[in-house]
Amino acid sequence: MREIRRVVTGPLYIKDHERCGTLDYLRLMALDAIGNIPFGGMIWARYLTRAEWEMLAANSGYRIACRATPARYRKSVGALLFPNRLEVTMRFEPV
User: Fold this and answer.
1) Is 3 exposed, middle or buried (0-12, 13-18, 19+ CB in 10 A)?
2) CA atoms within 13 A on the CB side of 2
3) pLDDT in tens, 45-63
C-alpha cells in the first residue's frame, strides 16, 4: 500500500470484504471455498474489520473518504447466509 501511495497521486478504489466478527469470518471462508476451490484458486485469506481497514489506510498515507455496500447483491436465502454487507467498496484518498 505504501508503494501504491508513493506512485499514485489520485484516489485508490478497493473492492473487498469486511467482517464484523467470527461468524462473518466463517461466512467469507465459505464464500472463498465455493468460488475458488473448483478452479484451483486461493482458499486462504485474512478478512479485515472496519477498524483494520481504517488502520491500513492511515498507515499507508490514505483516509477512507467513501464506502459503499451493495443494496441487493444476493437475494433470499443467499442474503441470509451471506449478507450483502460483507462486500464493500472503498475510496482511499491521499492525506
Assistant:
1) exposed
2) 2
3) 899 999 999 999 999 999 9
What is the phi/psi pair of residue 6, to 5°? -65, -40
Would you state the cell numbers that stand for residue 34, as one nine-digit string?
465455493
CA contacts within 13 A on the Cβ side of 59: 7
Q: Which residue has the higher pLDDT, 47 or 44?
A: 47
> Higher model confidence: residue 80 or residue 26?
26
- Which cell numbers hold the place of 30? 465459505
- Report how far residue 61's alpha carbon sits from residue 6's, in angstroms, rounded to the nearest whole number: 9
Q: What is the pTM of this model?
A: 0.86
**Helix-, strand-, coil-residue percentages of the chain, each rounded to 5:** 45, 20, 35
Give CA–CA dist 2/92, Å, rounded. 12
